[in-house]
Automatic annotation (TrEMBL):
<dbReference type="InterPro" id="IPR039422">
    <property type="entry name" value="MarR/SlyA-like"/>
</dbReference>
<protein>
    <submittedName>
        <fullName>MarR family transcriptional regulator TamR</fullName>
    </submittedName>
</protein>
<dbReference type="InterPro" id="IPR036390">
    <property type="entry name" value="WH_DNA-bd_sf"/>
</dbReference>
<dbReference type="InterPro" id="IPR000835">
    <property type="entry name" value="HTH_MarR-typ"/>
</dbReference>
<feature type="domain" description="HTH marR-type">
    <location>
        <begin position="23"/>
        <end position="158"/>
    </location>
</feature>
<dbReference type="InterPro" id="IPR036388">
    <property type="entry name" value="WH-like_DNA-bd_sf"/>
</dbReference>
<dbReference type="Pfam" id="PF12802">
    <property type="entry name" value="MarR_2"/>
</dbReference>
Length: 164
């Protein structure tokens, strides 16, 4: 079974036999897979009327557990965006009725962002849809292969996650 990366690597080996193009065999596939995954995720979110950034914020709140609320600073940490971007996102989600701002009882100047019932339902439905799409992407791999791949990818990603 040959894929586009095999053809790309063969062409580079022909044109530049002096270079070790072996890393392309792994990382070009990871890059291509990331693009396919991004498309599948966008489709899954759109089916529930959400943009990827909306899903990120809503699911950060959902994962927090009842009462499904976090400070804007905690949301910044989990979604890796700037303060101004997060303020804009909270404003837009509030306008859609998916979150609400509440005064922080521990900080007179602070606020908490809480998921509304509609926001929780949309997050739950979008997550279920996403998982269905992702299961389809992994359907060619056995559970053991999926486990092994997850372990190998964790090993590659861990240095980046610990550096940030």
């Amino acid at each position: 079974m040959e894929d586009e990366v095999d053809r790309l690597v063969a062409a580079w080996r022909r044109e530049r036999p002096d270079l070790d193009v072996g890393p392309l065999e792994v990382l070009s596939r990871v890059s291509r897979l990331a693009r396919h995954l991004d498309r599948a995720r966008r489709t899954a979110f759109a089916e529930h009327g959400l943009e990827p950034w909306e899903f990120d914020v809503l699911t950060a709140l959902r994962r927090a557990g009842s009462p499904y609320q976090l400070s804007p600073g905690q949301l910044l940490t989990q979604t890796l965006v700037t303060s101004g971007t997060m303020t804009n996102r909270i404003d837009r989600l509030t306008g859609k009725g998916l979150v609400k701002r509440l005064p922080d009882p521990d900080d007179r100047r602070g606020v908490l962002v809480r998921l509304t019932d509609d926001g929780r339902d949309r997050a739950d439905q979008a997550l279920a849809g996403l998982l269905a799409h992702e299961r389809a992407l992994l359907a060619e791999l056995s559970p053991d292969q999926q486990h092994d791949l997850a372990a190998l990818l964790r090993q590659l990603v861990a240095p980046f996650d610990s550096a940030g």
